[in-house]
Amino acid sequence: MDLVPRVTGYGVAEASRVWEAVAEVKGIVLSVFPHLKSGVHVKAGDILIRIDPTEYELAVARLEASVARTRAEMKELTGDEENIKTFLPEKNSSTA
After folding, report:
1. Which residues of the chain form beta strands (DSSP E)?
2. Whole-model pTM?
3. DSSP of 10-24, one letter per residue?
């Protein structure tokens, strides 16, 4: 025999968990989950929003270039320090 489940309730029903998202990324939204709206259940692994990764990739490239530039500057400063040490007399050496 087939049964049809029914529920009767009295009072106020509230969600046990609520999740609110705040966007912290830049980029163009390429696609949105077709059934994305308040109260809809989603499965783990569902892609809800797909954002164009170009802005992110550019930011990563800029940061990597900045790190490379800083490392090159550090290497240059280390070389300058070694040159200065070569040409300056040491503090502890005595002069006659």
Report:
1. 29-32, 49-51
2. 0.48
3. -S----S--------
